[in-house]
Amino acid sequence: MRRVAAAFVLAVSTLVLTGADAPAGQGNPQFEGADPHAVVIDRELWVFPTGGPGGSWAADRFGAFSSRDLRDWRPRGVLIRRDQIGWIGDDGAKEHFLWAPAVATRAGKWYLYYSVGPQNPTPSRIGVAIADRPEGPYRDSGRPLVTGGNGFEAIDPMVFVDPKSKRIYMYAGGSAGAKLRVWELKTSMTEIAREVPVAQPPRFTEGAFMHERGGRYYLSYSHGRWNGPDYSVHYATSASPVGPWRYRGMILSSDAKHQGPGHHSFVRGPDGNWLIVYHRWERPAGPAPFKGERQIAIDRVHYTRNGDIAPVRMTDGKDAPVWPAGRR
């Protein structure tokens, strides 16, 4: 998710994930936060956001929340702090910000990928940290994995392991340059094996996410201005995780109550049903650019008989999905 200068003047998060910060029982919106990366671990949904309850636009640390029922959320503590990233000041910038985390696991280890700003005047960068457990603590790898430049913004990483080839791909980039790049990672998960040339998907802005279902690969992503009503989620499909892409349309967009939904994850629940985890603005006061805090929401995903994703209906309160399905 792009961060503009105005956002950076807000107070940096002093988020401390304690029991007092645990969101409980409300359904949608679930809790404050943005850019949620979600995974299912032992029948429990884990969400890794930018910020969180009591947080701000830009964070100086990452945390996580987990839930077995999509109602009561357990804070999982601080994963890593900005001052634990030794290389972060090497660019000479006066301030640095962390956002848009993503996690992946391999061979019993967990890997946290994240964006580092500012994007101006110095290029954004992507880092990676390693832990033995999803809740950390994470240890940074010691160097940036990717550095932006030449019209490319190194933001919004997402790592996908192809279930067919077992190759490991990282998708990243977007915002002003609106450029998607893909790399194959080495099995260390902290080194790049090669860059994979890909076509630019239609209406791509940022926040790429890849998932596979029934042998089809779904590349979904955000389009539009991050703090405006046109922010939305679109998708394309392919027979491979690196294209070529066939654009399929928009699946998540503003309605009368919720504005600018995007930067999302797809997850398949223990009941076999798919969900989308994303952020949105709840009835923002005044015109764009919106101000205030974005909120994490979770809604159901439906696939048509031919495998297309139907437009997502955003829900409020306890109309939101719950595990096990059917419970209220």
Automatic annotation (TrEMBL):
GO terms for biological process: xylan catabolic process. Keywords: Carbohydrate metabolism, Glycosidase, Hydrolase, Polysaccharide degradation, Signal, Xylan degradation. The keyword Hydrolase applies. The record marks D156 as: Important for catalytic activity, responsible for pKa modulation of the active site Glu and correct orientation of both the proton donor and substrate. Transmembrane segments: none annotated. InterPro entries: Glyco_hydro_43, Glyco_hydro_beta-prop_sf, Glycosyl_Hydrlase_43_Enz. One of its GO terms (molecular function) is hydrolase activity, hydrolyzing O-glycosyl compounds. Residues 1-24 form the signal peptide. Belongs to the glycosyl hydrolase 43 family. This is Glycosyl hydrolase 43 family protein.
